[in-house]
Structure formats: structure tokens, C-alpha cells
Amino acid sequence: MKHFVVGTAGHIDHGKTTLVKALTGIDCDRLKEEKERGITIDLGFAFFDLPSGRRAGIVDVPGHEKFIKNMLAGVGGIDLVLWIVAADEGIMPQSAEHLAILSILQVERGVVVITKKDLVEPEWLELVMLDVKERVQGTFLADAPIIPVSALTGEGLPELAAQIDRLADGTTLRDHAAAMRLPIDRVFSVQGFGTVVTGTLHSGVVTVGDTLEIFPGQLMARVRGVGVHGQKVNAAVAGQRTAINLAGVQVEQLRRGDVLATPKYLSPSLMLDVRLTLLSDAEKILGNRERMRLYTGAAEVLCRVVLLDQEALAPGDSALAQLRLEEPLAVMAGDRFVLRTYSPMSTIGGGSIIDPLPIKRKRFKERGLAELWVLEKGGTEEVIVQVLRKTKNEMLTREELLRTVYREDKAEALEKLLAADAVHNLRVDDVEYLVDALTLQAIEKKVSEELASYHRRFPLRSGIAREELRSKVMPGAHNRLFASLLLLLQGSTGHQGGARHVAGKDFKVEFVGKWAQRRSLVLELLAAALFSPPSTEELAIRVSLSLEDLKELQDALAERGEIIKVAEGAYFHALALRRAKVLLLEFFQKEEELSLAAFRTMIDSSRKYALLLLEYFDQHKLTVRSGETRRRHSAFDSAFLS
Fold first, then answer.
1. Structural fold of domain 514-641
2. What is the distance between the alpha carbons of residues 41 and 13, in angstroms, rounded to a whole number?
3. CATH 2.40.30.10 is the classification of domain 181-261
């Protein structure tokens, strides 16, 4: 069944709330102040059954200019509107402003309702209807039915209900299969139940027991209960006015404008790339970096408008812009927004969000403007590639991409790109990651360049650590993903990849020039010193190398097994280690315990080097310490042969 929400709009005291009560029997003015003052201040909610048997939700909005922000919090989720004009007053300022807001938000369907029919003569009513018909020309209500009603006598109400029923057939069906998203328009506490939030379910399904995330604060909560039209249900679907009882969060942690959604479905942002259009009757030209009030979903946030392709924006004109927000928002591409001036407040324009997670853009930059043009106007395949290129330092998953791209045919377009090798995929731990072909080529080039540069700087090292290469090439990718990416690239780059290090194609450590001479000299000196090798500083002087270069040479020789690193700064010739192992074998064939003093005498060395060697043998399971002595390790035989 198609679910939909009807909203009211119009000037204060034109009978919106009275009409809703006449249709539904529900008084939407729930606040004490509303009762005392006789005006609607905040959003009200009701429901009623249509002639077809379908049940429609209703959002009743305030008409006073001081409460426009409350009105904006309610109309973002409506499917069709009742634009209400009182017969005794005709079109008034908020009638026009509400109509402008509805047009900006791209509400597509509605009924023009002339209320208080019983207060005027037929001739006057006809004049009002003619005036209204002229006023809605050029708007989405141009061909809408105009129905005079009287909430007092009930005249016209059956016809109005029938028109709502008919128009509901043409409303766009919301996506039940998508992730769940609900902009919160009310937060309160119910004794015995705790925190409750309400809103129009924009997409997906919410079920009792679900774990959801609240944005932009990124709080987690569990669904304890779900209500639709005042009744408890196990689940609510997209298009329904929904009340959700949440466990795990307090009322004080939430506010109107937050969004309840599937975990990780959204990402908070302090910038939005948008297409902004000023109303043709806007009261001023919009200059660059002006401070404005942004309304989207049920949220209100202050922002600065950075015009990207124009110096200033005149009434009726359109521009690409970046909104720099003073508080984070969690929105999606395609969401609509309204802008109002900071002070005095008036609606000036609005538009659609192109990129909810942009980089900070500079004005009049052709490349940036071209990117935005693709995201806004390009084909779906172009948009997918553009989104993937924008996130080149981190690879998006299939799920992340599909929720980022606001196009109905995105899944089909992605499959075409994969089939054409314009996009490539990697699967890691049952998660599918995506990268476009151009970005993959850039990564391939970067890998080759980094490897070549590393080998030039460190010719004696077998390769760069894979983690270091990841940080230089693709810092946003986790280790397992980067390892899979290197495996994908190996056929084209020809690099040599190990578990820890990566080297260029055909690279191998070669001792040439000064390194050949120094290698021979280091090996000669360590072989001669046997168990009393010179210190690092002494060795550097004797072979005429800096300490840094000597360490490079020592590490290279150690990797080849020609010398052994026993401890930091302590290297022995491999022959010395083999000789020490033989001495240990001979000793343990006769004795059970070996003291440090005995071992020092055995190798004819200093206490320092004797201790370093014994600790090395402990680590490599030749010996095991027992108090102040060593015993033969149970794994001695296998360790001896290694």
C-alpha cells in the first residue's frame, strides 16, 4: 500500500488547524500557549481515512511569520499540500511565502483550499478564487483543483477528501528497500517509556528491535517501540508519519533536526555543495559569503554562502555554491533546502544538495566547477565515476557508493561500468570495494614512482615497508584492502610483493662502487674481531662511512645472513655465531648449566658481548635462563640447525 503525508500551508488565522480538525476530528493545537493565544505555534499531527480506505497522515504547520522555521521543519516530508487561503482575507504575506517555500522544496501536488466560505457572499468568493487562480500560475499549483470549504458547516469537505484521495494516486512511492532515514521533527519523553521521536519516514523500514544511529551526533539507540497514527505497530515503512520509542539515549541528547538512520548510512559535514536559485521576487541581491539561515529536513543551521561561479546572485538567478555550515548536518545528495536571510528573516531562495561531503572549494576554478556539473547534470555512469574519483585516497564500498549517488538507475549503471572495466572491484572480508580505472592508473603510477624513489634513496634495502607505501599512496585504505590492491596491480607494475615489504620490478640489492669496497672491509673487520666486534662508531671511522650509511650497510648484510644483528648496534660476523653455537653444543654435551663467566671465558670476550650473545641465544631457543645460569633449551637441536 502507498503511504503518504498531507501538509497544510497558508497565512495565520486562515483556518488550517480548524480545517484539519473538521477532516479528522483531531485538534492539532496541543500546547497550552496555542490554546490561550488561539494560534498555531508548533507543528501539529493528525490522520484521517480517505474514501478509498487509505489512511493519510497530516502535518499542520503554523502560519505566523515568526514561526516559519517550525513550518519548514514540517513540510520537508510531505507528499502533497493543502494551500489554504481564507475567503474573507484572500492571499496574504505568509500565503505567498509558504507557496514559495513549497515550490523550492519541489512539492509536486496539492489542492488549493478556500476556507471560511460561509463568511462571504458568492460574488466575493468568486473574486477570491479568480485572484488565487491567477496567483498560482507558473507554480506547481497552476492546474490544482480549487475547492471552497466551510469547516463550520462541512460544505466542501467530502469533495476535498475525494480530491486528496485522487491526488495520492500520483504521489511518488518512497523507497522501502533503501536504508532507513527519518528526519526528527519532535523529541519528547513519555512516562514509563522514555525518549520518543517523531518524523516522516523518508526511506526504508523501521522495526522494533532495530539498532539505529542518530546524526550528526552519531549516537546509537535501540528501537523499543514503533507507532503509526496513534497505534503500536511492529514496523513502519517509508511514507508514514512515525513515532519511535528509543532506548539508550536521553531527550536532552536529541533535538529537532537530528536524523535517525541506519548505522553508518550518513556522514556529518560542515560543508555542502549546492545548486542555489534565488526567488524572482527576492528582496535583495545575494553577495558572496553572506550569512544565511539554512533549512533542510527538519534542521535549521546558520551558514555562509560561498558563490563558486558568480560574483553575486540576483533575484531569479541560479549559481553553484558551497555552504559553509556553523554546525554539522547529515544530509544526502538530492535533498532540498531553503535559505532565509539572517536578519530580518525572509525566504530568499533555495535549491538542491549536489555533494554532501565536498572538499573546500575555491571560487571560479574550472576543474571544480566541471566536477560539480557532472555530479549535477551528468549521466549516472559519469556521476558514479566522479564520486569514485573524488574519494581517490580511500576506496568506497559498493554500499557506500550506491547510497552516495542519487540516481534511480545507479545499480544498473554500476554493473555496466564494471563490465566495461571502467570500474574495478576488490573483495576483502566479504566486502566489495570499488575504484575507477583512471584512479587505478594513478595509483599504479604512484606505486611505481614511490618504489623507484625509495630504491634510489636506499639501494641496499630490499624494499619499502608495505605500511609505509600505503601511507604514501593511499592513506585512506586499511592494510588488508591495500594488500589486495597491490595484488591487483602486480600484473601491470611488476612489483615484488611480500608480506611486509614491496620492491620494484627486477630490483635486487647489489653492492657496487663504494658499497662493494665497504662490504668487503666490514666483513673482514668483523671476521677478524670474532667475539669482540668494534663499536658502531669505531667501525664507521675505520670504513669511512657516516653512521647512517654504516647502518644501511649493516642491515643489508644482516638481511643476507652475512652478519648477525644480536642487539641494537651489535653486529657479529656469521662465522662468529656459528662458532659460538658449536661451543655451546660441545659444552652442553658435558655440562648442564652454563654461567656468564664460563661463557665469557669460552669465547674470550668482554662481559658485555658475552651477555648480549647469551640473551640472543635465549631468544632463539638455544638456551634458557635458570637463575644466574643457562641450561640447554628443549628446542636446542632444531634451533642449532636454523
1. Arc Repressor Mutant, subunit A (1.10.10)
2. 12
3. yes
